[in-house]
Amino acid sequence: MAKLSTAFFCTDCGSETARWQGQCPVCQAWNTLVEEPSAARGKTGRRETTAQRAPAVAAVKLRDVEPQSMQRWSTGVGELDFVLGGGVVPGSLVLLGGEPGIGKSTLLLQVAGKAQGAGLDTLYVSGEESAAQIRLRADRLDSSSNDVAFLSATDIDAVLRVAQDTHPAIVIVDSIQTVFTGDLDSAAGNVGQVRECAARLQRFAKETGAAVFVVGHVTKDGVVAGPRTLEHIVDTVLYFEGAVTLDHRIVRATKNRFGSVDEIGVFRMSASGLTAVANPSELFLGERSQSSGSAVAALVEGSRPLLVEVQALCTKSSYGAPQRVANGFDRQRLALLLAVLERRAGIPFGQLDVFLNVVGGVRVAEPAADCAVVAALLSSVRDRALSADDVFIGELGLGGELRSVSQLERRLAEAGRMGFKRAHVAARAIPRGDFGGLIPLPTADLGALIKRIEA
Q1: What is the model's pTM?
Q2: 8 Å CB contact between 175 and 225
Q3: Which of 415, 408, 358 is nearest to 388 (CA)?
Q4: pLDDT, tens digit, 9 for 90 and up, residues 344-365
Q5: Which of 166, 170, 165, 240 has the alpha carbon at shortest distance from 201?
Q6: What is the bridge-based pairing of β-strands 395-396 and 390-392?
Q7: Which one of 25, 174, 253, 440 has the fewest beta carbons within 10 angstroms of its own beta carbon?
Q8: What pLDDT is stored for residue 3 in this prediction?
């Protein structure tokens, strides 16, 4: 009889090794190997397989496959439908990650209530909270939330039995780190448990056509706790962003097999739950500073243009090594822009502490914000406020040149709709058209931008 053995799995890439090492031999990540029960092995030492017992299957030509229109169910939350690509697809597995207390359970309970009110039976499974706690939250939301079927369980097999008996259209599991299967000799939340439970939920979704939402906790690095293979198993990965102290939240799609990625939905936290924000640009610019060191950048998140405020503060360093603090912006990108400014504009940032903040908890990942960051830094160094009617769009090259960015027309249209009068853009990318009174100003390089700011 084959006996159970153990192996070491990488929490980043999911690869398996026979012994522990400091570095994963596949993805080269450090300190990511953890010991978990492995599949049984026979007397020969080879892994036992079920290939001989597998049913016979046959490959088909793609031309012989009948195309089908993709059906979607509305979650009842417009911003979430937008992020998902138009609604939730039956048979899909959706992972929602975020920090504790940011609103994951509240949003999914709202989805459950809306779906139940629309005639879609919903099963809400919680391994963290009792029925009384969920009832208190449901009382704050719409009345349909109280009609949702609730199950307090952590055994994944028990959960799936209930789901198979009740045939719900939507199943919500809160959270994947709390459920476990007795087939593995390890605690809930371990790499093997998370991977196996997610695989069983995926198999249930594909076989029954039910849409499954799974809540995932995040680590201090901002990624979902557990093996990285969890994100490969699911169909859609959504992340809740934003500080818990703020009254708004951002839901971002980082993976979506049924829609575009990097779409965002903006919500405002209220006493009655999460409500959609119709105009995110107005929200992020509502308390815009008129002092020095403030500039406005035009971003594109997925298919949505978004205006955000970038603030910079440059002060004389009091220590040997100057500080570089960035909130919502990549620190390495900031170091690159400071090097370009010091080399091309002669500003001695080596003697200055630099603090950069993207207002509203927005995380900027695209280089189109370079021009706004540079403008905010120059404004802070010169201690001169920029015009409130200006918006800055463009990528800064190492030679100090301003480069064009994609979807410039959409960025300009959003800025014009918000009442801005001038846009500083790359000289080679001046578009034609009416942008609501906004005038694109060609800016060749860093020198031209500095002259225009100091004029």
Answers
A1: 0.81
A2: no
A3: 415
A4: 999 989 899 999 999 988 889 8
A5: 170
A6: unpaired
A7: 25
A8: 46
